[in-house]
């Protein structure tokens, strides 16, 4: 009974050491570009053969993998999205040029 009284009077034991903090080191490899904005642009403006939409799907998968912590999977999906975005951009520019040049040539042929 005396021991219980001493514990309640004295309180919890005190630690003489100062409290320590936790340091979290974030490595620079976590910066994997997912190309979502580029894919969205290609989806909305230049979407030949639905390449922009497919690139957008791969970009979202890359972002999901990055959030889970799977950097290898995120890099693989991001690489595929980048390749699809490049092809969508090239084909979109070529189709835009052709849509301008062909009508001009037809118009000049009928003159």
TrEMBL record:
Compartments annotated for it: namely: Membrane
InterPro entries in the record: CD225/Dispanin_fam, IFITM_antiviral_protein
Domain of life, per lineage: Eukaryota
As for family, the record states: Belongs to the CD225/Dispanin family.
- Biological process (GO), any one: defense response to virus
Q: What is this protein called?
A: Interferon induced transmembrane protein 3
For this UniProt record, give its keywords in alphabetical order, as a comma-separated list. Membrane, Transmembrane, Transmembrane helix
Cellular component terms (Gene Ontology): plasma membrane
- Pfam families on file: CD225
Which species does the entry assign this protein to? Colobus angolensis palliatus
Transmembrane helix: present as a keyword of the record? yes
* Residues annotated as transmembrane: 36-58, 86-110
**Family matches, as PANTHER family:** INTERFERON INDUCIBLE TRANSMEMBRANE PROTEIN, INTERFERON-INDUCED TRANSMEMBRANE PROTEIN 3
């Amino acid at each position: 009974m005396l021991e219980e009284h001493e514990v309640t009077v004295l309180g919890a034991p005190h630690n003489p050491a100062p409290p320590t903090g936790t340091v979290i080191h974030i490595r620079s490899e976590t910066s994997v570009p997912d190309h979502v904005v580029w894919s969205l642009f290609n989806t909305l403006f230049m979407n030949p053969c639905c390449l922009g939409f497919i690139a957008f799907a791969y970009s979202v998968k890359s972002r999901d993998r990055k959030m889970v912590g799977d950097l290898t999977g995120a890099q693989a999906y991001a690489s595929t999205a980048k390749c699809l975005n490049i092809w969508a951009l090239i084909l979109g520019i070529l189709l835009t040029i052709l849509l301008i040049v062909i009508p001009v040539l037809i118009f000049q042929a009928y003159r």
